Amino acid sequence: MTIEIYESNLVNNLYKLWNRLCSGSYFPASVKRVDIPKLDGSLRPLGIPTIEDRIAQMVVKQQLEPKLEKIFHPDSYGYRPNKSAIDAVRQAEKRCQDRMWVVDLDIKGFFENIDHSLLLKALDKHNDRKWVTLYVKRWLTASVQHKDGTLEKRTHGTPQGGVISPLLANLFLHYVLDAWLNRERVSIPFERYADDALYHCRHPWEAERLLKALKKRLNECGLEAHPDKTKIVYCKNSNRKEKYPVICFDFLGFQFKPRKSRNKKGQIFTAFSPSMSPKAFKRIKDRIRQRNIINWVTRTPMDIAKALNPSIRGWLNYYGHFGRKDGVYLLSRYLDQVLMLWARKRYKRFNRSYRKSGSFINKLRKQARYLFAHWNMAVG
Predict the structure, then answer these.
(1) pTM of the model
(2) Contact 223, 120 (CB under 8 A)
(3) Phi and psi (nearest 5°) for 45?
(4) Dihedral over alpha carbons 180, 186, 187, 193 (to 10 degrees)
(5) How far is CA 353 from the centre of its chain?
(6) β pairing state of 31-37 and 144-145
(7) Rounded distance, CA 183 to CA 345, Å?
(8) Would the pLDDT of 184 be above 80?
């Protein structure tokens, strides 16, 4: 059922759903399994609930979220009101300046491996409404429907794609990691966004000991640190000149590494700072290629700008917060190259000349500075 069909008889549909929720006769439908390709070649399984299940999950989320927000750690940023990925990256940048060692933690297959009994135990601690627990149990155990129509029973995990899944995931990791860390090692600051977390240490031995403890803690709770993505990183800069094999990490689409920078006096120094990661840049390039803009030969520059600007603004607004000279400049150059290739196919007078098409785009950029979103964004 589409949203349009559901809305065509909205009042009646919502009344029926409310009646089932109140009587306890509501049972969720199977969750649709959709596999999204990741950059490393693997697949990320998403579970898409039906429209009615999403509405019901939102009802429960609105009941739970105000209570859970009171106990969540301030350095947990993922899927929370008034917090963002940029907040987490900004905090990480500050702490990398103060502490030279970082434990970069990534949990392998987190959403698919959440222990239901531990999650419900944490839920019962903050929820006194039996109907909330009842429906959370039913959502957790709802079967998964694969592309070929086969159904699979689920005994662990919560579908990544459900409305309530991020809140339940945060509750689970609050007790697995955040509350545990405060209880065991109060002096180690961190930033966590869902299952990606950074822990800032002053000494290498402190980082090694923490990493060992984190792995043990995850295993106790039915989880596993990703063997390839979890690592200890040395935040190297002009004042930190020790040798260490790992001096960079990726976090929320940004790569932290030593970079040449300039202070207010114009002096060059090395800072450990974030900018758009190569993986994020590749992802954007792939999305642009998939749109096959080069072959839009029947469209005008205004048509292309109208189609691309929402995405361009989103990329620039996100990645423009850090490392503008690196990330934003690189993105702007690539977008202009795509437009040059389009112009070579669109206008026969260029005779497929890269120089002539480049001159055309540069001239258009001067004449219509506001046409494409990246043309009007200064890089500094």
Answers:
(1) 0.90
(2) no
(3) -80, 125
(4) 40
(5) 40
(6) parallel
(7) 63
(8) yes
